[in-house]
Design a protein that fits this description.
Elements (H helix, E strand, L loop, with lengths): L7 E6 L4 E6 L11 H52 L55 E8 L2 E8 L15 E4 L2
Antiparallel strand pairs: 1-2, 3-4, 4-5
Length: about 180
């Protein structure tokens, strides 16, 4: 059996005055990409994805933090207005004595921001906000009259942040606005 070897022959075509490639092996032309070329392309795409995905995730997290801060500013304004009108915090405690009762969701009427119960009295002029959505991580915003910051209890409105850990478990990714 005769061994067929693919040889590229270049010859000058006198009619069209150009160089042409001819394949001698079975008269078939070899088209497509080699395995090595495909592996190089896949490797390059992998490197680009390895660079792009962490950048995208970081930008998405930063965007969520900015959204939470913006929403907290609106909620803070509503809490201040409630307190000025009624003399009470969202936990129904008097302004001068905020107590230690946290409100883990500011949407119910007991919080006094969207609607109010009779406990707020005739001074209530709300609703102070139309709705209060969940934070960007799917958790409720909270009111905490004894949030511990650097060893001092502060009155805050906040979000448990990206990790969602909360309810008296203070950590560094909580996002909050100090009211007093």
């Amino acid at each position: 059996m005769q061994q067929i070897v693919s040889i590229v022959v270049k010859r000058r075509d006198k009619r069209c005055n150009s160089m042409q490639d001819f394949r001698v092996a079975k008269g078939k032309r070899k088209d497509g990409f080699t395995l090595l070329e495909m592996m190089i392309v896949v490797g390059i795409i992998g490197v680009l994805l390895a660079i792009a995905i962490p950048s995208f995730q970081k930008a998405r997290t930063e965007s969520r933090i900015k959204r939470a801060k913006s929403e907290l500013q609106l909620i803070t304004a509503a809490v201040r207005q409630l307190t000025w009108d009624t003399g009470k915090w969202p936990n129904t405690a008097a302004y001068g004595a905020p107590g230690s009762t946290e409100v883990w969701g500011l949407t119910p009427s007991s919080a006094g921001l969207v609607a109010a119960t009779a406990t707020y009295g005739t001074g209530w002029r709300g609703p102070y906000v139309r709705t209060i959505s969940e934070d960007p991580w799917g958790k409720n915003y909270f009111f905490d009259p004894d949030y511990l910051i650097s060893g001092v209890n502060r009155i805050v409105v906040g979000s448990f942040g990206p990790n969602g850990v909360g309810q008296n478990l203070y950590d560094s990714d909580d996002i909050y606005v100090i009211l007093r």
